[in-house]
Amino acid sequence: MIRINLLREPRQKPKTERRVPGKILAVIAAVAVVAAAGGALWTFRASLFRKAPPSQKREITVNKEAAPSTFAKSSMLEDVVKEVSEEGRKISADGILHLAYGELSSPEKIDYEVLFAKNVVELLGRAVPGGIGLRSLEADNFQTLYAVGLAPSREMVENVFATLKAHNVTLLPRPLTQITANRSGGYRFALTGKTDFGLNLTDSMVDAPLPPNVDLARTLQSFVKTARENSITFVKMPSKVSGEKVGAYFRYVYLWSGTGTYKNFARFVAALHQARQYVAFKRISINALSGANVKIESRVIVTTRE
After folding, report:
1. What is the CATH number of the domain that holds 185?
2. At CB < 8 A and 24+ separation, what contacts does 106-110 make?
3. Which of 158, 169, 200, 256 gets the highest tally of CB atoms within 10 A of its CB?
4. Could you read off the pLDDT of 259-282 as tens digits, one per residue?
């Protein structure tokens, strides 16, 4: 369970935000905007995050043609790595495939993509303690994490950065990742990190097949139903952006937006996993509104088979 509360700061003269193209400039602009004006923030209560249930141990079979798995227990971090198979792929004792996203095979990439949103939610639950407020959070292209927020002390932010690094997030240098003293007290921070969760080959859904292409409409209906059951209010229903056939797979990209609380969004992601819905969040953008409410904008990929 997650509790998200609004952090309010002393009112300051508002300034107009200006959009700047490009990811790096967007993060810098976000820092400047937050530093200049208070704005809404939401705070994490890491101890209230629901932990993933322990996975059962089972024998691992490396198969390039295996159907995609679903969300991994990303808290597994092993120092002992062994070489397996003729391709020399690195798999830890707990079955985590340690390869960068770009080095994975096509079926493995599908697995990693479906894992990504839940890995991000669980990582933030471990890394961000109560008292730290976030104004914006973004995860992009299954590889990059951005955040802008406020903390009461520099030490708290440094601990967040250290935890992210310990979970294989490479933080980029200033000004993309930085801590700045706030005139009204506390510290503002921005972070930009490259994620590397690894791929959990022991997940219980590793042998489950993708849904057939004829069930695409049903998959989208289930996605919408699960969102609503977790108190996500749609502002824009999922609309198709693109679609293509890649080998034996069909890949469809949909754009949607909605409102709720961060707790609602985290529950939604967990519920997709529990319902075995193969929807991958290619882009997640969450921005604080008023109270505990946040605005959610996302691109998702639905992958089906012939």
Report:
1. 3.30.70
2. 106/246, 106/247, 106/249, 107/64, 107/65, 107/66, 107/67, 107/68, 108/199, 110/68, 110/210, 110/249, 110/280, 110/303
3. 200
4. 999 999 999 999 998 888 889 999
